[in-house]
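Example 4.3 (complexes with small molecules)
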Amino acid sequence: MKRHLTFLSSDSLQGRKLGTEVPGLDIAADYIRANAKSNGLNPGVENYFQKVSLVSVKPNENNFIEVIDNRGTVRLWSEKLISYGKSSGEIEMQNEGIILLGFATEDSITTDVEGKVVVVSQSTPELFLEKETGWSSRLERPKIEKITKKNPKAIIFVLNPNIKARNSFSMLDRWLNRERYSLKSPAKNNPPVLIVMPEVADALLGGDGKYNKYLTGVAKGKKKIVSVKKRKVNLKFGSNSEPVEAKNIIGVVEGSDPVLKNEYVIFMAHYDHLGVGKDGDVYNGADDNGSGTVTLLEVAEAFTSLEQKPKRSIVFLWVTCEEIGMFGSNYYTDNPVFPLEKTVACINIDMDGRVYEPRDSVWNKSPKKVKDFDGLFTLCNNVWPEIEEISNSNCEKLGLIPDCSLPSKFLRSSDHYHFHKNGIPIINYATGYHADYHKVGDEVSKISFEKMKRVADLCFLVGYEIANRDEIEFDREEN
Ligand SMILES: [Zn+2]
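Answer. The structure with zinc ion bound is encoded below.
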């Protein structure tokens, strides 16, 4: 394990991320494949590689929005325009083609907005009156979905006038107008969603402060829906998308039972990390998640060396691009190589190489037992409760103390999420966050290989027991 991890977390791999000068992510994939092969895993897909198609999105320069009155005078011209999605285009619209929907609460999305430019305030009436109105995608996304169903030409979000909109804008600008990646998806005809400063809405309503007044009225239950008069809006927005390819590595040990071999236990770990920092420092990600990557190689070797293979087949899935959006695991569950209905468990490992040090202040919130050398975070969903029993009884055999107290929000914290959401029983093993988490100090020198070995032993025993169970039954309700 040390030999593998020393290579995978060396500077020469440049932090295993897309887009680095040396293609370290691809080198890591080649390395994992070569070792999966020499460990005796059969290819789960042709040549072990499942292609993961992504797009990289870069914002365009020269985006703008302008508001012109009916005499042709430009009332506002601004480059402060953020595109929330991937689309590009130019829009021209005037008068009643532009419609203000207040905060787009349930009862204000009743009007006909087909083909119109819809102007919506971020946040809710309550938060607006309390002047607590930072941007929250959790609040805005459902609005976007509801308005989109009514086929508007565009949705323009206005930042609230009574907060420091300028700070809010630059934060969103940095976040959304960076180079980003997403899974390649079939082109949808969704309307563009844009974010602008409150001045734009003032210009549409005819003067400074008018938007604030309008929103205050809306929040206090007055008129919500307003069409614009004597104003025209022009805007240009967009981004450049380019296809990028990444890959998952998939190996398999075929089960020994003629029937049950068509069911699968999946071991998973992401092998990507954070790349190179602006100052040229390499994020080596020895623990995150070189440790899980290497643990899987070890577990694979244990299974291939068995003379009598377990009844069910065991799949080893090294997924890509977790750090930038869990794309590899998402792609796999969207395009499963082995049917999800036949997948009985997914055991994910994300960071299993550290033991507590006093400088890991982040652990102070952790339950005491995980700080012990024997402690291990064990996260299960409740699709098939027996999985936790199997895990716990094998922990006992090895002298490990499982901590199953992580709150359910951790079901979204790593790749296991995409299996969880498909109603598959999951376990996630981790030795926990530490002072070097997502820092350049996440180096191989700080790894406890003894701990990793114990987690590998546990993975083997748990996988073996699940794969040999006579019958596994549970309800595959999607989450
Ligand atoms: Zn990770």
